[in-house]
Amino acid sequence: MDSQGQKMLETAQSIVRKAAADLNLDTETVKRLVEPEAIHEFNFPVTMDDGSVRMFKGWRIQHNRVLGPYKGGIRFHPDTVREEVQALATLMTIKCAVAGLPYGGGKGGVVVDPKQLSTKELERVSRAYARQIAAIVGPYTDVPAPDVNTNPTIMSWMVDEIIKANQDRLKRLYASSDAAQPPRLNPNYFRATFTGKPVEKGGTLGRTEATGRGGVIILQALLKKLGSNLPNRVRTSSAARSAEHALTVAVQGFGNVGYYFAKIAQSAGFKVVAVSDSKGGIIKNSELADRRDLSALDINLVYQCKKERGSLAGCYCAGGVCDTRGGQIISNAELLELPVDVLVPAALENVINEDNMKKIKAKIIVEMANGPITEEAYDYLTKKGVIIIPDVLANSGGVTVSYLEWYQNIQNVSWTEEKVNKKLEQMMIAAFTKIWQKAARMKQSPGLDLKQAAFVVAVERIVDVVE
Ligand code: NAD
């Protein structure tokens, strides 16, 4: 049994159990919240480019459907194991409930390294997996989406297969009856089986930026609530708009989530002073020994530079010129320990842990990656008064806009990006407010535990429907 997958599963289940204990739920209800409703495991053959046939293993785990269709991505990874997929399905149940969506939780995975496949082979693996899940997914049963190493193109291949599988099923039904031709299925309806599709194939505008945008919306909502009770050094959100007093932000990870978080935070008036990718991070004005007076990076220029050079290392952008002079490369470890107001881990899990938790200086941490803070570090920092926006809330902008995509498909409409962003904002603020109020009621001096509050809100939402 894979120990990391097992640990992930134990952690996910233990947080659900903790929330259930806070609510004094009975044993059978706890079981219902912890155990998945269905675990589908498949072994399927795929013909490779050289004509050989290779077997692949995959899962679709349907954790809980109390609030609505199962919802959750499909990951392609060589190290994926059943326990990991199950842990992620459990967390999707919580995330969808936290976000106030009419969805339960699910997750899919295939043991495959896409980097070792040609595009044609990747397409055949994706289509073969879609055929395996065709009978168990659908707009009102289970709605998958992209995750690690899967993308909109893969979703559109999968939609194709679902339409074909359903058309074939109808043909078989009609073949055994005296009726004439089977009706043609409405492809639009089946498109709602997957979210994260290309826009021209029923995807929605605004999805690419949604996770980063949602994180910034929650951060702003938090600052508004904190008002004059801001932790030391952290000033008001209106001050965040004045360049001189702008709140400083460091972002680890410059992929989809980190880049859009940094870009949108910058336009909202935050001073993004450090960003990093897997090869390292960059800051300006680093000659100041204590790094208290870091300058803002220009995120658009940094992005251009990364595109040109392939990594952030060596990018220092000022006044429209990207070059290697000035500024400084810092390590990812140093970035996490910068004296910034807001720290945003947006790359990997467990980066804030027992080894570095005492060196973290930020007063607010926005968990944009999944699980970037270990349980021990979470407890330590929360007790110290650091406010942590938990991943299930902070990065739920992605699944919220997935819901908006599904909704548009079901209604057969397409919204403008502005409308999608507006809806996202309303939904994220509503989700935050509910959790903020719960946390304030549960507050244990001196910490404010938004994670525990989020899990309790989620479990309450599910249990309310069960009862
Ligand atoms: P991505 O692959 O687009 O970007 C990942 C970034 O992390 C890259 O910049 C990469 O260079 C950087 N990185 C990799 N290893 C690193 C290391 N050792 N140190 C520092 N940086 C490193 O991925 P993403 O979609 O931006 O996802 C990031 C995190 O957010 C993941 O935990 C993911 O599960 C989570 N998440 C993503 C979404 C979404 O909509 N994309 C939604 C919810 C949660």
Cofactors and ligands: nicotinamide-adenine-dinucleotide
CATH architecture title of the largest domain: 3-Layer(aba) Sandwich
The helix fraction, in percent, is: 40-55%
Q: Which strands sit side by side, in order, in the main sheet?
A: 11-8-7-6-12-13-14
> Termini, distance in Å?
36 Å
Radius of gyration: 23 Å
Indicate the mean pLDDT: 90
Summary, kept brief:
This protein is α/β, with parallel strands linked by helices and about 475 residues long. It contains 15 helices and 14 strands.
Give an overview of the whole structure.
A hairpin with a 2-residue loop joins strand 7 (271-277) and strand 8. The longest helix is centred in the last third of the chain and has 26 residues, at 417-442. Helices cover 45% and strands 17% of the residues. With 467 residues, the chain is α/β, with parallel strands linked by helices. The protein folds into two domains: 3-203, Leucine Dehydrogenase, chain A, domain 1 (Rossmann fold, 3-Layer(aba) Sandwich), CATH 3.40.50.10860; 209-394, Rossmann fold, CATH 3.40.50. The chain has a seven-stranded mixed sheet, sandwiched between helices. It has a five-stranded mixed sheet with strand order 1-2-4-3-5, sandwiched between helices. Strands 9-10 form a two-stranded antiparallel sheet. It has helices at 3-22, 27-34, 82-98, 119-133, 152-175, 187-191, 207-226, 256-267, 299-309, 332-336, 375-383, 391-394, 397-411, 417-442, 450-466; strands at residues 38-47, 53-64, 70-77, 104-111, 142-146, 248-252, 271-277, 280-283, 316-318, 321-323, 328-330, 342-345, 364-366, 387-389. The structure holds nicotinamide-adenine-dinucleotide. Nicotinamide-adenine-dinucleotide is lined by residues 211, 252-258, 276-278, 332, 346-348, 368-370, 395, 398. The site of nicotinamide-adenine-dinucleotide has 20 residues, from helix 8 and strand 7.
